[in-house]
Design brief:
- It is a single chain.
- The protein is α/β, with parallel strands linked by helices.
- Among the domains are: 51 residues, lambda repressor-like DNA-binding domains (434 Repressor (Amino-terminal Domain), Orthogonal Bundle), CATH 1.10.260; 132 residues, 3-Layer(aba) Sandwich (Rossmann fold).
- The chain is built from 13 helices and eleven strands.
- The chain starts with 7 loop residues before the first helix and ends in a 23-residue tail after the last strand.
- 41% of the residues are buried.
Length: 357
Amino acid sequence: MVKKRVTSQQVADRAGVSRTTVSLVLNNVTTANISEETRQLVLRTTRELNYVPDVAARSLASGRSNNIGLILIQPHHRIFIDAYIPSIIAGLSQVTQQHGFRILIEIIKDVTQPNTYMNLMWGNEIAGMILSNPKADDAEITALAASDFPIVSLDYLNELVYSVSTDDLGGVQKAVTHLAHLGHRRIACIPYAPIDANNQVADRLQVYYDTLESFNITPDDTLIRYGNRDPESGYAAMQSLLELDPLPTALFAMNDIMALGAMAAIREHGLRIPDDIAVVGYDDILPAQYSTPTLTTINKNDIEHGVLAGQMLVDLIHGRPVDKPQISLEPALVIRNSCSGRQTNTLPLHKQNPCTD
């Protein structure tokens, strides 16, 4: 049985106030003669009942532009360090502009605080939310989705939460498989964060190990150096790897920014790319096409990701049926000039430039 949505009248009855008072409090009408005690009582009652304001209907009825909340659950310094979030915004804005919505960006560093997402609804005029990097086990998100508030995650969480995600584990497999197909057996890896700081890193690293083993390559933990998403950490990680004997013959960096930093370290060491060390990145950012040599990488099409998430959210806001509640996008291998090997066979995937052999 589907749980009925809590109404503003139920909030008013529980708090012992009028429905008008509830509306004035939730709409932050400062000119209303409402005491602070009553205001706090109404807010407390909405939390207790998990009341979700019907912001979409209120905005449409008033004729004002609707706002969509893009909720970024990550530290400030990581948000614009690569092209992911700007690309998501570019795709999302294509949809919002078409349908008359505006994007409000909210950055959250601590999701352990109670009512994190509920507070965003109470404090801002938003018709729906798009979540970037949410915790997989966040019960508040699931409860919010169950209440029929329009919400879309950019990562798969569970079957109750609408999502548009990328099969990043499949992308890692394609990157490592490509290097193994080229004959490389000492394939180093630079994850973008320590395992204990990000569960997604652990999952991707496990795929790296499993793919090596599928080619009868024994994983070697000495070939792992952890980065921190930025070019400086990729450079430092590669410098450490270059102290090994024997050297790795190939590198998979879990984002392009770190890969570019690693390539600088390789060149400074007097080695050639791809002749001495092949390099594959991840994300296919614009500079990857203009690096020296051009960077082989995994393209996730983040703009399309933003477009599809925006379209799904708009459909939810307007009460339209969504055919696929969970969409998974398949990344593609883009072969450029930073890889080579002793074999010429490669996966029949998306190809821009031939690999140098």
